[in-house]
Amino acid sequence: MTPLLDDTHDPALTSWVESANDPLADFPIQNLPFGRYRQADDLDWRIGVAIGEQVLDLRNIGLVHHADMNRLMRSRPETRRELRQALSVGLAHGSVQEKRWCEALLPMAQVQLGLPCQIGDYTDFYVGIHHATAVGRLFRPDDPLLPNYKWVPIGYHGRASTILPSGHSFVRPLGQLKGAPHEAPRLAPTQRLDFELELGVFIGRPNALGQPVPMAEAEDHVFGLALFNDWSARDIQAWEYQPLGPFLSKNFASTVSPWIVTMEALAPFRRPFVRPPGDPQPLPYLDSPANRDHGAFDIELAVWLQTEATRTAGSHGHCISRSNFIEAAYWTVPQLVAHHTVNGCALNDGDLFGTGTLSGPLPGQAGSLLELTEGGKRPLTLPNGETRAFLLDGDAITLTGRCAQEGFRPIGFGDCRATVQAMDGAVAATGLAQR
User: Fold this and answer.
1) Which residues have C-beta within 8 Å of that of residue 105, sequence separation ≥ 6?
2) Among 131, 221, 294, 339, which one carries the catalytic annotation?
3) How far is Cα 402 from Cα 160, in angstroms, rounded to an integer?
4) Cβ of 159: how many Cβ atoms within 10 Å?
5) pLDDT tens figures, 234-277
6) Domains in the chain, please, with CATH?
7) pLDDT (0 to 100) of residue 435
8) What pLDDT, in 10s, does the model give residues 77-128?
9) Does residue 131 carry a catalytic annotation?
10) 32 with 20: CB under 8 angstroms?
């Protein structure tokens, strides 16, 4: 798990793809994230690498001889580093590959970006301690954190079939809503639709059933990170979650950004993992010298809300929250892998972990409307005068992420965006939804 810095991280390195040299670009040559794309007349997905505002097709330049992203993700860490090195050399200014590789470039705006890989399983964790504390305080003011929180990386199994790539829309979900204690529940559209600011952790190398992954090897099984929004219906969740946790309140849609930023690209932005004074230290299977030295990641995160009114006005929306992974997360990526497999659970290439909501310690750093509005009691007032307690039809949420460190080139994650649609009139007309 030692982060390897090499010439692919050189901040002076520039590319013959000029859009990659923009200081504000998410995808400079120092990044080189992987994803899948297809053109309008394609039926099958292709493996691409983002460089500036372009997509480079890996099979067209002969660096891979297949179009199976999951197969690439299963590569050993040294093979991944060799591929990154070859891409860096070929895309650098003055490369002898420029003329040939130029023919394998496509404008990102002219292709369809899909899920970055085939996602087989999905586990959502709860690593955001400030989120867990704020939400717990709404229900247990005197003791917001449950006793196991600082000992166990809490998680639940989610629904992979409804994870969708950035840019999609989804219909406001139905579920059982419970009113006053004496009232029977009713089936209705959620009135408390929320976003959750998360990161997604993509598994690369599988482990065999019955073979736990130790901390020292955990990151060898991780391909990289992406932005992730685990949409939540808070009123459905409040009624259904006991005793087994979320179900319909979470499984209707989740959004992931289309590019996986690799662990190799994130090497300059690692930080020590330190528990607050007085907190218990992790159990031995969740601890290692390398994790203590550089197990955390410095990733700046932001949430943008675009309403129908701001869209009509030509605005991209308003930033309603900012936080950082390093401040928000109580558990690290390798700890999630080690804990998930300690009982012998087998992980597969393409499995996705959600980190859970990544809220900072300050009110303006909350990663959900549940926190930002104190459960809807204090609606947000946007700069144009609109207010939001929870999301309305037509609202769009965009997550962004960026890494910056003195002496290195900043890199980004691209956008993770989706829009809420009103329930189809035909569904409402069936009487299924009780108003």
Assistant:
1) 17, 51, 54, 55, 56, 57
2) 131
3) 26
4) 17
5) 999 999 988 888 999 999 999 999 999 999 999 999 999 999 99
6) 7-113 (2.30.30.230), 122-429 (3.90.850.10)
7) 40
8) 999 999 999 999 999 999 999 999 999 999 999 999 999 999 999 999 999 9
9) yes
10) no
